[in-house]
Amino acid sequence: MPPKIHLYMTPGSVALASHITLAESGLPFSTTNLGAQRGFPAKHLPLNPKGRVPILDLDGNRITESPAIITTISLLVPEKKLLGTTVLEQARAHEWMVWLCATLHAQAFGGVFRPSRFVGAEEAVYDVVKAKARETVRECFEYIEGKLEGQTHAVGHVFTAVDVYLLVFYRWGNMLRFGMREHFPNYTRLVEEVVSRDAVKKTLEAEGLTPLND
Ligand SMILES: N[C@@H](CCC(=O)N[C@@H](CS)C(=O)NCC(=O)O)C(=O)O
Predict the structure, then answer these.
(1) CA distance 15 to 196
(2) Of the candidates 34, 97, 163, 181, which lies 20 to 30 Å from 156 by C-alpha distance?
(3) Closest C-alpha to ligand 1, atom 13
(4) Nearest CA to ligand 1 atom 12
């Protein structure tokens, strides 16, 4: 019997990576939108005391943190090789995911979207924090662009869930007007291929999103 899987998410958030990975897995699952666009609703804190989406419920066990959720889904369908085939590819996939989660998401985008997490109520310096964070986002995009030079995908030469995780931040880059297509052609080529996949199209449609948010 397949596991009972439920994903708590919010459209367009980082939960999109877990949502698409579930769709790619072919496993049956259901979703609930927790409405965390402008902050995690306090009434849902019992689901995740850290106050974040995504949350994966697997047979009654709740799993948080995108890299852990994506790894869990990948382990449920080993034949799909959602995080690569060889030991080295899987190591690279985790290397990417940890960096995307801790540096690009939490540090860089965190500073742009939530400067209060860095300087508390010091509103007078929010713009300074945001400007520095935007610079860090750009540096991260440049790093990604360089890593994708001569590479069809983030890991090896085939699709992995890392490509989907990268799609989330490309869409945010367009939202923040980073000129993604103009400045990051390798990154653009990758995400254009990602959004042509059936599972990705289906998930974007289910979340009510345009593919690249441009
Ligand atoms: N480290 C977590 C971070 C998740 C996260 O920051 N989610 C955001 C949406 S993109 C959220 O729930 N924000 C609610 C809030 O900041 O109050 C992960 O990678 O899953």
Answers:
(1) 19
(2) 181
(3) 52
(4) 52
